Amino acid sequence: MKSLFITALALLTGTLAGCATAFHSSESNTGARPETLYEAQLVDANSGTQLSVDALAQRLAHTDIVVIGEYHGHQAAHLLQSRIQAALYRQHPLQVLSMEQFNLDSQAAVDAYLSGKTGETEFIEDSGAWDNYRASYRPLVEFARQHGLPVVAANAPAAIVRCVGRTGPDYLNKLPANERAQLPSDAFLDTPAYREKFNAAINSSHSAANDAMSERMHNTYQAQLLRDNTMANRILDARKAHPNAQIIHTTGTFHSEERLGTVALLRQRAPSISVAVISPVVWPADAGKMPLQKNRDKGDYLYFIQPLPQEFLDEDREHKAMSARFRRPNNDTCQGDSP
Questions:
Q1: Exposure winner among 71, 100, 148, 231, fewest CB in 10 A?
Q2: What is the mean pLDDT of the segment spanning 18-40?
Q3: Where is the Haem-binding uptake Tiki superfamily ChaN domain (predicted)?
Q4: The whole model's pTM is what?
């Protein structure tokens, strides 16, 4: 049962995890499966029209918020994000980069690096950057730094997310006033479709849970909502601080595809804003045609990529790896907990 919960939690904690090929024309109705893990086929989800990055940027030049979903660590996703960032900047040089990959309590470390007060290794250490920062997110931050653009650390503090997942949403009431003030007042806004998606993701991999496991899954979902609400709130705060800027937000695709998660909460909080969602879709190795029809609803624009290699074939080794990866540190306690 413990390994079941760890695997389920890993799925959500990892956010249930292109680089468009050069074309002779800006738009095309043909496409082929990407040949390498760096490549992606970028298309309009409605029409299936294949787009270059520049053509996409022209379409999105006047969009308030552009959300680019990713499978964390996928080379094609990160290369595409960097290319879209630069192409949108050419269309709209007032730009803000918002990132799930940094928590709001690391904003001072992000700002210190952008202003030249720290070096990159210091920044990585001070901000708690993800292990794949240099390979995946360095280009985005460096583009912002070189062009004097703000970078928003958009995610909720990891320790608070963990404690909500462990003890439930009432944990926020135990926080010091200054920490609680950084989070949205309505930190657990929800949409029914998102809960259904969460349940489907869990149930597709696991059998029915007992009451204790159901409570844990409920709390895990509340932790997920805290992250989404915090990111939506941080994005809207960035719009207030930079009212004429376009916001680019990078996030795991579970937070944005089907216009759910963070995107749905943005629309709840600010119905008048325009939001475009760009979502990754895996093109199976055995599929000759682009699998467009069943994926249209995932975003306004889709980018088709090769699947990443499967991490494990041995279930016991997978469970042991997940246990090690998400083991609770001895000094990791919540308010009111005992170590």
A1: 148
A2: 61
A3: 56-265
A4: 0.89
